[in-house]
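Input record (one chain):
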Amino acid sequence: MRASFDRQLDSLRGRLVWMAASAASAIRWANLCLFSADLTVAGQVLDAADELTQARRSVEYRTFELLATQQPVASDLRLAWAGVQVVGDLDRMGVLAAHIAKTMVRRHPTPVVASPLVDVVRAMAAIAERLAWDLARLLELNDPRLSAAIVRADDEMDGLMRRLFQVVLTDWSFGVAAAIDAVQTGRFYERFADHTVSAARHVEFLITGQRPG
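The corresponding structure, as predicted from the sequence alone:
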């Protein structure tokens, strides 16, 4: 009985790694479609986001079923609790990538990002993708140092969001609609990073048994 339970817990760990890699692919495709206005790639983002939502529901169901039918010890409970929290964050990351793609589709063929903000938003896009892949590696390698790197990158994202606001509020000639889309897109990236940090902290708790400070 215990061997079967352990196999199912290992399957849960593997599912988390797969979901993190899927979230990384979703944001990579979202970045590509945002700057290339590629509608086909936008469709890939939406499909990936849907798959993440389905995976979250599956993981939640299996986890609660395990807890109800088995006799978990403390480390099992920690994995189950952290896993449910992480899949929620990963699902939201997919949703945010989809929001970026949908913004591009809605404004197509007009670019979402006006020229003064291209460098800032490209930097935000690169950080979001790096964060997602770092989270996947954290889940795979169980190395708490990766969690610290994720938090540092999130600080970079916050700084870029402040730069975005500064441009929009001080030297903007592209109209209100373009300003709203720019700020909203930046916010999608910022929230993507926030969910990555949240997931990383849950994984750190899973690894160490201690809540991050």
